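Q: Convert this sequence to structure tokens.
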Amino acid sequence: MTTTAIAADLQAAIENCAREPIRTPGSIQPQGFLLVIDEASMTVVQVSENVTDWIEIAPSQLLGMHLDDLVKSGSAFVDQLSDLDEDQLQAFHVGDTTLIQGERAGQLFAMMLHRNDGVLIAEFEPASDASSAHGRLYPLIRSFISQMREDESVDELCLRSVGFIKRITGYGRVNAYRFDKEGNGVVNAELADDGYDKYLGLCFPASDIPQQARELYCANRIRIIADVDYAPSPIIPAHNPATGQPLDLSFATLRSVSPVHLHYMRNMGTGASMSISIVMNGQLWGLISCHNHAPRDVSFQTRTACELLGRVLSLQVETKGAHLRSQKMLSLRKQIVQMLGAMADHDSVLNGLKSLPDVFLGFVGASGAAVVSDTECDLYGLTPPQNQVHALATWLNNRQGSDVFHSDNVGRDIPNLPGLAKSIGGVLAVSISEVHSNYILWFKPEQTHVVHWAGKPEKVVDVSGSLSPRQSFAKWHQTVEGYSTPWDETEIEGVAELRLAVLGIVLRKAEELAQMATELKRSNKELEAFSYSVSHDLRAPLRHIAGYAELLTDMEQANLTERGQRFLGTIGESAKFAGTLVDNLLSFSQMGRSAMRLSEVNLAAMIESIKREMEPEYQGRTIEWITGELPIIVADPAFLHLAMRNLVANAIKYTRNEAVAVIEITAAETADTVTVSIRDNGVGFDMQYAGKLFGVFQRLHRMDEFEGTGIGLANVRRIVERHGGTVKAEGVLDQGATFSITLPKKHLSPVAR
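A:
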């Protein structure tokens, strides 16, 4: 057989495997039996063939029988499902029951029940000592949850989870593995008894778990195979009499599994297994996999505990991932602000980036970068030759797709430029013009590395044309070449934000100005000169004034009169204030440039964080904080934090003359808006000047009374307006003030599941 024919057979076998009806296998595992109930009539419409082995009643006798005629309090158990959410599809232990008919009448069975596919599916297995199980399992779960730490890494958490599950289930080997972006699973935690192969650090190929199986793992978080050599018990009749369709057993504990998977287990030397899903943001993040040499069943109480732990672990992994992502995005946004500030300080994007080469490269952890325009190509760090960079820019300009391109293997993804792979392994590119072929590019070198597989990752087709799992799971080494370290998703998002900022603030403005008439060009140059003067010429003299005033105080203090010392102090303080004013003004001018990143914001937690930040400013004062119930809203966390901090800082500042300052923070909601109000009992203000409060440099109190630059409230208004909201201020002289922000309610796009 030719190589082409072998490849075709393999592809056909893979496609057949992908079409295997794993949700409707037509049979169950025999460690229990199954009844399918028509809910309207409460009669049995389908049964598992092995029901005779369990209760010594033939399937034909059961079909059409009322549930209450077979199971004691059957209808009452069904009624318990009403306590669950409508979308609850998981099998639910409704209780232990006894049979009414047959030679096994009076025998106690645990009954699991769920709705799916338009019917009630009841599963029965031998009852266990529930009180003993609950008394043992609850303290263990409580202990597991209470021991969680914020500084605990994901791998440490997985190892603790593995230890817990091994302890309560008794499996010989329990490991956890996480999936990479290709779907390969890497074992990151493992505990195994003597005599079991060890897989810690090994990689399992993505092809071990077909896509439809991954989707089922997300839907049903736990799967058990009590005996790899079980004889499947068919469903009788095979199809639902009402619909004519095979029974969907997606959420059934007893669901039969693929023969290919059973073959896989035998090759691994596994007699029984259980899998617990770790789901993050609706996607399968990893699995906890339990193996035992000999057949092993696990009670529903223990399975429930394992599933609960899996859900807790999933939430923890998701939380830790979100925290790391937030920290990464915060760092990236700080660097974006630095680069945009540099661009604003210079006459072009190119010159701005030139001034911050370390920030430019470190932004995405690159070893080299390039800025390409129609006329220029500037290179930084380790890059391909300039002619290859130009060729890459041309290729990017001709491709169809998003404005951000990334690859961790340019040899694979850009075959048109074979020479490129000799210089680099990965590239991240972003278009920075809607009109011209202008790009910012980052490069990473190739990093050869060794992957340790659990057996050689290849599929074989057996004589029947079906996939045959690999025979050995012994460590197999593969040297991987041509790849760079992968680009992080947050880095890719950060680059997209940088693009929007550059387009919206710098390039678009430059392109529009370039098309203006000659007289507008002159005005533009004057504006650029003013911006340069503010950002450079003004700040430098102010620093000199403040510095020389401080030096003069240190050197000549003894020779100065008290009046001269006072004058000199005033000079220094005024220079510092002017410097702060310039910095705040520049910050205000740049406020509108940063792209907003909406997410859910816990206002209560944000207010508590701000209070802790500002403790040094009101230390020694008596402040009565009154905080109402604050909602969770959708906003940009960084921007909203700045706005709320300014408002809280104002309340603290303008109540300093009160013996007991009272600051009240409340929220009110309508169907479409959320209004957050901060009220104080401070100096207040005359309402006839309320319109001035949110303007730049607008102050209602003298500097010698209350310090400030007059920009804080202007920042609040700009932030709120960028969210589509409004600001409002109310006050009475010497009776306090109330500042309110009203934001529209927004909803995040749902995550695809």
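The mean pLDDT is 82.
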